Amino acid sequence: MPVRGWVPFSTLEMWEALDSCSNVLAPGPDHIKWSHLKMLMHGPTHVFTVLLLLANACLQVGHWPKHFKESMSVIIPKPNKPFYSAPKAFRPIVLLNTVVGCSMQYAWGDFVSDLCQADVGVEQGSALSPVLSALYLTLIMRLFEKDPLTHGCFLLSYVDDGTLVVQSKSLLDNCAALKQVYGVIFKLFKKFGLALEHNKSEVFHFDWSHSKDNPPVDQGYTPYTGATPLKPKLFWQYLGFYFDRKLTFTEHIQYYSTKALSTVKAMKMLVMYGFRLWYFAAACCKGALHHLSTMQHSAALWITGVFRTSPTGGVEAFAGLPPSISFFAIYLMRAFLSRFNCGTIALHPSLSIQTMSEPEIFCTSGTLFESDTNVLALTETLLPMNPLSRPGVRLMDHFADQVHFDDYKISRGNADNELKQRTKHLNKLQDKISENIRTYYTGTDASLPLSGQYQAIAAFILFSGGVAGKVTAICSAIVNATLCNDCMDIFIFTDSMASAC
What we know:
Elements: H1 11-19, H2 34-41, H3 45-61, E1 70-77, E2 90-96, E3 103-108, E4 111-112, E5 116-117, H4 128-146, E6 153-158, E7 161-166, H5 171-191, E8 236-238, E9 241-243, H6 250-273, H7 286-304, H8 312-319, H9 325-336, H10 358-363, H11 367-378, H12 395-399, H13 415-434, E10 439-447, E11 457-463, E12 467-468, H14 471-482, E13 489-490, E14 492-493, H15 497-500
Parallel strand pairs: 1-3, 10-13, 12-14
Antiparallel strand pairs: 1-2, 3-4, 3-5, 6-7, 8-9, 10-11
């Protein structure tokens, strides 16, 4: 794989990063919210330049300012807890100075503590967390294995979920052995600065005999000791599996088969006969179709067992699932082309161009024949590592200070009056642009028909003045305008700000 060099952050990249930040998040110790930074971005240009230089300098020098290493943890009680005397009944919410902190202070009501170091451990969800956990627990498991009191006992661990396994010919002997080895593991955890939550303990007996005996276990620690021992369950859930006492997995199969059957019935109502309720002509259901496509893609991945990043169309075809309407139309059209342009699709036995003689092809015209003739010229090859696709080399990355957007949103309350004022403003702007002979403007537009009978089209016409339109037309217009040697300014008039950006 080619290696790309590091490109400094551009103005556009900083804008995109700020746009993804929520304005309603609570601020950190500096009381600066993301909305404040966005307001500064709209202010003087030098403020934005300073922040951009600071971000690039931090990466180039390898230094992270102390200010960004401070955070505040707000203690919030969890709802519906029987009592709040234990720390686990509360949830700490970390408020950061925009990124991450190594110094932390706690807030409880009106009380705010002093800053204290928080440089131990890693953040929740970090990829390093399970690795460090495994390294820390490996020594404990080794010492547990070497202890003579744990002979015949197995210790299994999945991150912070541990399992003690003992076996004998008597359930009562197993209960005594479990109490003994639990005491060993508790002392080891205490020596390593760890704690076991006794109230989260569970016990389950596997028994092949016909006896219904299911004795409880005296754990030796509160709350499961003395008169309140730990009572075993009839079914045990572990890592998503349901175990029964005789390992028949009847409960496991019944649970997930019922869940799968409910899902299939729900999809039958949603996709098969229920779609007539929400899918009709001119219905605003693009988001719903996207969710259904995601669902079908997940189903195809599960059926085929391929990689998660595999293309949707190929996976659906391999799984035998009906593809989307647009893909099906392309599939049929390619079946009518000649064998040079049909790709891997089988030719239609009687309607393909390949079955026609040269005189018949010469005397016949139409869209299909034009597509067969020009399909190679219209096919664009995309390079995944194209130099123009590198971060930091886009138009807005280099010329963000020379590109300005005059976005305007019309409110619903007084739409007619605002539309007239906006039209008047744009007409005056066009007259002003036309006075400058070194300013080019272009009229552009693009059309994407709802019916599959027609093709999308984009066109432009160049004058001495500005630009308007959709993505393809805008690109073509800008390219042709910049080819003029005397071009100094380009104005874009568009009804889609997302396309212009």
